[in-house]
Design goal:
There is one protein chain. The chain has 334 residues and is of the alpha/beta class. The chain folds into 2 domains: 126 residues, Response regulator (Rossmann fold, 3-Layer(aba) Sandwich); 138 residues, Rossmann fold, CATH 3.40.50.2300. It has 11 helices and 14 strands. α7 packs across α8 and α9 runs antiparallel to α11. The longest helix has 18 residues. The protein is elongated and about 60 Å long. Belongs to the bacterial solute-binding protein 2 family.
Length: 334
């Protein structure tokens, strides 16, 4: 794993962050799901009283990235005798309402993503003020402390983008197109900004509708046809990168493709060479640690990271190391 090697990880260490080993959404309707009999959280291996934790994300049904986050959260809940209530909505106001619903139902802890901290943060602050432990994950690393959250699990998107930009420079990229699939998501903007910094060249941003992959394919294809000098496409989520493969073929472009985040299909694309590499932030670990940290708080008042973010990435997955994580990715464990 090119970036899993210690030398790669050393480049992203910040003094205020805890390093472990190592945002996205495609839209959809809101959902709320609860583990029931023999469901999530049943049969825990601990002796603590059963508690209820809400995980509120900006993901959507069918988004494989959030399936991985949720799988990690479910495993942590099952281990710790927790009833996990998962809900999500890609629209920030609706997501804030889901946080309020969790508060109203008197949950014992809340894990929340904040792609738009100004819209979601005040709701999280209400939970904190109500005495409910709250942690952040995935999106909102630069904002979570403002709203009283006690921890955060994810990657610094600016740092991850800069590392990706440096990798692109090493690979000889000259004209990079950064595809943002969710306009208004600060995490995605930070990734593209970091790429430009690391690359040391201007990076063009293309906005697409990530909720409609057919539209994504057409939009990217049109851009490539208009500008044949584009030699590298940087996706910010696996489905957009995989769709861009079709765009490249249809436009007769020679552009290479890389992306943030992985899934089982993307692993195969790296193996076949249609995708060059991916920046992995370990979504399973984000969900697992967020829920586990809330159980630790309930258990004995423990916290992870001392109030500082706990990094789960970035690392690089490429042809040299993809076999190491392929089985886990396809099993929804990474």
């Amino acid at each position: 794993m090119r970036a899993v090697k210690p030398a790669r990880f050393a480049a992203i260490v910040l003094g205020t962050a805890v390093i472990l080993a190592g945002c996205s959404s495609t839209g959809g309707a809101p959902r709320t799901e609860t583990g029931g009999a023999n469901g999530v959280g049943e049969g825990g291996g601990v002796d603590t009283q059963r508690k209820v934790v809400a995980l509120v994300s900006h993901g959507a049904p069918g988004d494989t990235f959030w399936d991985l986050v949720r799988k990690g959260a479910e495993d942590a809940a099952r281990k710790s005798n927790i009833e996990l209530r998962y809900s999500s909505d890609p629209q920030a106001p609706n997501q804030a309402n889901l946080v309020q619903s969790a508060i109203d139902s008197n949950v014992d802890g809340i894990a929340v993503t904040m792609p738009n901290a100004q819209a979601i943060g005040p709701a999280a602050q209400k939970a904190v003020d109500a005495g409910i432990p709250v942690v952040g994950l995935n999106a909102g690393m630069t904002e979570y402390q403002k709203y009283g959250l006690q921890g955060f699990f994810g990657q610094d998107e600016s740092v991850a983008g800069e590392m990706a930009g440096k990798r692109l420079a090493e690979d000889g990229a000259a004209n990079v197109l950064c595809v943002i699939h969710e306009q208004g998501n600060s995490s995605q903007e930070a990734r593209c900004g970091g790429i430009e910094k690391g690359l040391g060249k201007k990076v063009e941003i293309l906005y697409v509708n990530g909720q409609d992959l057919t539209s994504v394919q057409a939009t990217v294809q049109t851009k490539l046809a208009q500008d044949p000098s584009i030699d590298w496409i940087m996706g910010l989520v696996a489905p957009v990168a995989l769709t861009s493969v079709q765009s490249v073929e249809a436009a007769g472009s020679k552009a290479k493709i890389s992306t943030f985040d992985t899934n089982g299909e993307l692993v195969d694309a790296i193996k076949s060479g249609t995708i060059e590499w991916a920046v992995d932030q370990q979504p399973y670990l984000q969900g697992y640690l967020a829920v586990d940290s809330l159980w630790l708080d309930v258990r004995n008042g423990s916290t992870l990271g001392g109030g500082n973010p706990v990094y789960t990435g970035p690392s690089f997955v490429d042809a040299d190391n993809v076999e190491q994580i392929a089985d886990a990715a396809k099993a929804g464990l990474r």
